[in-house]
Amino acid sequence: MGFERVDVVDRHRDFRQGRNLCGAGLALSLVVIPPADVRAQSAPVPDEVILSELSVTGTGPASERADGPVAGYRATRSATATRTDTPVRDAPQSINIVPRAVITDQQDLRLTDAVTNVSNVTPGSTVQGRSQNYLIRGFATQVFAVDGILVNPAINFYPVERDLVNAERVEVIKGPASVLFGRGDPGGVINIVTRRPTLEPTADASVQGGSFGFRRFQGSVSSAIPALDGLAARLSFAAQEDPTFRNIGDNTNRRVFVAPALSWTPSADTRVYINSEFTNQRTQYDEGLVAVRGSVPLDNIRRYYGEPFSRYYGEINGITLRAEHDVNENLTLRQVINGQWGAFNLFTARATGVNAAGTQVTRRDASVDSRFAAVDTQTEAVLRFDTFGFAHTALAGFEYTNGFRHPYSQQGSLAPVSLLNPVFGAIPGALGFQADLKQKLELFGFYVQDQIVLAPGLQLVLGARFDLGTQYYFNRVPTSKTQPPEQSLFGASPRVGLIYRPIEALTFYASYATSFAPQNANLLNVVSPPPETGEQVEVGTRIDINPDLTLSAAAFRITRDNVAANDPVNTGYSIITGQQRSEGVEADLTGEIAPGWKVIGGVGYLDARITKDRIYPVGNRLVGVPAFSGSVWTTYDVQAGPLRGLGLGIGVTHVGQRTGDLNNSYRVGAYNRVDAAVYYDFDAHYRLSINVRNLTNARYIEQPFNQFNNTPGAPFSVLATITARL
Question: When comparing pLDDT for 59 and 277, which is higher?
Answer without folding.
Answer: 277
